[in-house]
Each structure stands twice: as structure tokens, then as C-alpha cells.
């Protein structure tokens, strides 16, 4: 696996597009690792301090993810080095998408990512640049449908991603009009835990869980884990967090979900960040869902969790460990050798899978069909890993080997 990984990591990306904004200090990159299958896909993120290497590592991560979620295309990513809270953000995004629109028409598909919203920013701004849908390039380059078929499938994709959830099994409050895009990634993270216990033995109900991050992914993961009967004992967010060693009830987690301010945890019981960051890693817990930013989790933190009874990690963040390597650094390897670590490209593939699902010819548009498709995709990937290695350790190593054999 290490040799395959080295070959894959060291292979130069096929396309690197670099942009410097004419009106602000913003700089952006689209990195296309390969045009496997004639196209490449990956979202657009924005954060201050982002550089080309971050975008490259995420593009390579996307390519691995597509081996699980489909379609069989290359990995790509876009990133803009700019403060997402700056009032000039909208203008930056408008100029960025205008510059990158020829790629989006031909062979590159994008979507929302960190600090860039799929529904309110990506779709309307790309439309104004003459792109039918941010995934149009995947249709053009990979599927190569007839014009009529392309129109039908793009319509299906457009409708599906912003579909308002109507089923109370999937929506915390149907009156609030949560969409597929709001909930699907966190749902997949929780389903990864459920399928892990089904396949490797055990059950979610009664297990204690810690969730890192309470944005779209973390809050949804906490919601669905609590719905399954897991006891969420700790939540750590950017500005603080909450601990309840008895476990928050499903109703309490649901209320926290409904009360969040955008992507931020809100509670009058909040523990300041420095205090919770000392305590949370020592809680007795079996399940950990890292759903905050990439490269945050230290070896000390994970060691403390392992000593406190940790059994399984389902990654909501891409590359959650504080490793320098693109994939599988020392901290990730140390973790994988000691507990069950479901890698990000399986557990957080929900949105990529939704795109792939809606790109197929004619599919069912019900909440159940969409969510069950993501659930089964994750289940099949975990089952495939188990079939190659039935041990509860080295799950990520095995999963990477399966994926890389398709790419190298």
C-alpha cells in the first residue's frame, strides 16, 4: 500500500489553473489531478491562508473518493485564498467563476465546500456565467450525453440537490425546509458508524459519541447518531462546546441542531474552547466523528481517546489528522493500527454520491431513495474492506489499497 501511495502522491496533477483577482488580494487555484474518464470533480472552498498545496491534496482525495461514490472520473478541487467574512466575497466569487467557467463547461464539475455555499453561491453565480449547472463539465467530459439527455439529467441534478426534505426520518424539522445538500454528508458519517457495527459486530445503540465541529456535517452527524440511539457525550466546536457524560437525549441534540447559528453551536451551557479542549479527549467514548476542518487532530488527543475506550472513528472532515502528508501520515497510521478508522473517502462521500446518483438516467427523487442510495454506497465500501481484511484495525490501510489499485 505504501508503494502505491507514494506513486499516487508523487504523480504531478494534469492541470493547475492559477488566478489572481484584479480588484482584491484574492488568489485562487483549480487543481485537476487527472481527467480520468474524461472529466474531474471537486468543490470550491475559501479560507484565508489557503495555498495551492492544500488544493492539490484535496484534489487527490477527491479522486480516491470517486472510486467509492462514482462516477469513474478524476479528482479536482478549487480553492480561493481570501477571508470568507470579507464583504467583498460575492464579487470575488463572481470574478472567480467567470474565469473558471470554460473549465466548468468542458470537463470540470464543482460544488460547495468550506465557506462556499452550493445553493446560494455556487449555483446562481455559475448560472450567471452561462454554465447550466456547476457539474456541467462532468456531463460534457465523462457522460457525453445527447443535448436532450444532458438537459434532462442536469434538470434532475438541479432539482435533486436542492430538494427540500419532506420525510421526518431525515429532516429535523420539515417546516424549516432543510435540503438534501444540508443533511446528506452528516447522514453518511452516521451511517458509516451504523454499517461498521453491523459488519464488524455490535450496535450503535447505547454507544457514547464525541463530535468535533458543529457545522453542516457535524450537526447532522450528531443528529443521526442520536436518532440511532447513540449517546452524544461531547461536542467541540470552534468557540467552545458541551459535555454531558450521561449523554444528551435525542431531543436535546435535535434542539441543538435547530438552535445553531449558521455553522456554529449555540447553547447557554457552553464551555469555553480552552477548557473543553482539555477535557473532551479524556471522556469515555466509543465513537468519534471528526467533522471540523482538516488536519486538526493530534497524536496526543487520539491517544487519550484510545485509552478512554474508543472503538470507531467515522471521518466527516477530509484528512482530519494533523499530518503533513497528503494521505496516511504518521498520526493516521498510528490511529488505524489501534482502532477502527473509516477513512474520509468512504464516510463523507455523501454529497459526491448524490451528484453521481442524479447524473444517472432517470432515478427516484424521494428522500428515502436518495438517502438509501448513499447509505448502501457506504455499506458496500465497508463490506468490501471487511472482505479483504476482517480485522478491526488497519481498515483505512485496506480501503486505500483497494482504491489505489484502481488509480495507479
TrEMBL record:
GO biological process, one term: L-glutamate catabolic process
Annotated Glutamate/phenylalanine/leucine/valine/L-tryptophan dehydrogenase C-terminal domain residues: 181-408
Family the UniProt entry places it in: Belongs to the Glu/Leu/Phe/Val dehydrogenases family.
UniProt keyword terms in alphabetical order: Oxidoreductase
Name listed for the protein in its UniProt record: Glutamate dehydrogenase/leucine dehydrogenase
Cross-referenced Pfam families: ELFV_dehydrog, ELFV_dehydrog_N
Gene3D superfamilies (alphabetical): Leucine Dehydrogenase, chain A, domain 1, NAD(P)-binding Rossmann-like Domain
Natural source organism: Mesonia algae
InterPro entries: Aminoacid_DH-like_N_sf, Glu/Leu/Phe/Val/Trp_DH, Glu/Leu/Phe/Val/Trp_DH_C, Glu/Leu/Phe/Val/Trp_DH_dimer, NAD(P)-bd_dom_sf
Superkingdom to which the source organism belongs: Bacteria
Keyword Glycosyltransferase: no
Single GO MF annotation: glutamate dehydrogenase (NAD+) activity
